[in-house]
Protein: XRE family transcriptional regulator
Amino acid sequence: MTRTYDADHGKPREDRMLEDLEDSREAVAARLRRAREILELDQKTFAAKAGLLPQTYGPYETGERDLTLVSAKKIRKAHGLSLEFMYFGKIDDLPHKIATKL
Structure:
């Protein structure tokens, strides 16, 4: 994966999106992708465990579609990702395994 660096912050842009309290589609997608990678799941398995079809979940992770509240709640229940993390990047309530690897 090619990383884009922010001149102002010196961190890879994707890493900043994980931390920033922004709810842009791109930032939400980056958080979902990173959490899934930490859990060592492919998109299909991650989606299935949350009761989502791959064609529903995929566009969330690629930033092609806004994450719906209904889908976010399913992801929260299946994988322990808090709504605050998915939408705003807050890591306070994440499972330890995910929080320590961000």
